[in-house]
Amino acid sequence: MTRRVLQLLIGLVLYGAGCALTVEAGLGVDPWTVFAQGVSVHTGIGIGWVTNIIGFGVLLLWIPLRQKPGIGTIANILIVGTSMQATLSLVSAPSGLFPQVLVFVAGLLMVAVASGLYIGARFGPGPRDGLMTGIKARLGWPIWLARGTVEITVLAIGWVLGGTVGVGTMAFAFLIGPLVHVALPLLDTGARASAAREDDIRDTVGSGGATAAAGGGELSAPGTRARQSRA
After folding, report:
1. Which of 40, 98, 137, 227 is the most exposed place for a label (fewest CB within 10 A)?
2. pTM for the whole structure
């Protein structure tokens, strides 16, 4: 149990730090972070704190879906955004394309390892992942449709609000699933994952092509700077 708790906490801290590095890289981030950036730009609230607030809001959507949060779900809401905000206050944005790419890759790999840690701890899904599986369970939608619909929606809203959408968004969509697929078996606290568990994991980490299709070249909403959200 102690190992699982430590693995959960370390994974969530690393997840927030990895997301912060992708923000600082400025090449585009995952859809939910685009959304958090956009809200942050317009409210002046730090992107990490916004991430926590959004996580709580998503958790409320679990109620009509009859989903039950686990310890990991609550910890996710409290820790990921806090770690993200702390990292943003310590790390400066890189200057130049090559350093930007290095920082983005470091962030992406950190998120992949962190995902393997917190999912492998088996304390319940994060609020966003639980939303996807809840839609699948209650509405009968295939997971790719549930995830694609939700993530394209938050991506579009976030971009309009000023979040950064770019090549990094596409890279995240295509690479995070395979990377977590490699990391998770090494970090799963169970001796063996059942076939059902593996299916659930694929549902959780598989972004599919829908999000990537919404990405593209470096884009930003007119007159806004997503990095203002570091404040």
Report:
1. 98
2. 0.79
